[in-house]
Structures are given as structure tokens and as C-alpha cells.
Amino acid sequence: MSIPCLLHKSSPTAAYLSYHPEKPSQKQPRKKWFEYSLRVQPHHTDYAGVVWHGTYVSWLETARVECLRSMGIDFAELVKLGCELPVVELSLRYHRVLRLGEIAIVKTRMSAMTGVRMYWDCAIESSDRQLVHVTGKVTLVAMDREKGKLCVNFPLR
Description:
Layout (H helix, E strand, L loop, with lengths): L11 H6 L16 E6 L13 H18 L4 H6 L2 E2 L2 E8 L8 E12 L2 E10 L5 E10 L1 E2 L4 E2 L7
């Protein structure tokens, strides 16, 4: 049995996701950055103590999930309903390395939504915000996990 990607109308998640970005009277994508800090741990690095490039991708995904949570959208609730938000495009620019023990600020924000696509900006900065380590853009789509198709009933449009 297929689980439609619809949320209970009274949930805060449904209220947020049902807006239409093209209508100025409704809530727009997040303009402020969602931020959190972290300290580079040994398991984030290679043998030289430099953060492995794939670690940044993991940090950015954590930031997106927590940003959604801060907006009242529980990712676990979406998964229970059979919805997924896979990455369909990822573009990162590595400006400078982070090293073991350093503290960084991971930043993300949803820049736009069109149809079933969610566009995100991301950055990782030094704790004093003077250096940029990584910048990028990520595109997600709403998918019905059981059908393996775009979630046309997902109230993102």
C-alpha cells in the first residue's frame, strides 16, 4: 500500500510546507542562516589531521535536517509518512582546510522552493567568522519512497 506524501493538516510541518513561494502573502524560504558550531574530531580527519572532504557533506546534511527542525519540520515524521528528500544536485567549493581540534560554524538556509525541489545554500566558516572553509549549493526533491517517484501530492508547491 502506498503512503501518500501528505501531512496531517493541523501539524506545524504541514502548515509550513503548504505555502506557495510565488505568492508574496505566504511564508517565503528562510533568508536567515541556520547555524551550529562543531569541533573537528579525529574521526573527521585523515592521517594528517585534515578534515576529509566527505565529512563536510555529512555536516551539511546534519545542518539541513536541524534547520528543518527549527522551522517545525520533523524529518523523522516525513520518513514515517513515506517521504524522502534525496539530494539530486550538490556543488561544493573547498576554500581552505579545517584541521583536528578547530571549531567551525556550519551554516545553511533554504534559498528557494519550486514544485518538489528545495534549493539550499550552505557554508562552513571559522569560529571567528573571518575565514570561509566551504561554500555550496544543494538541491533536494520530494520522493514517495514506496513508489520511487516524485511526490506530486507533497504540499511544497
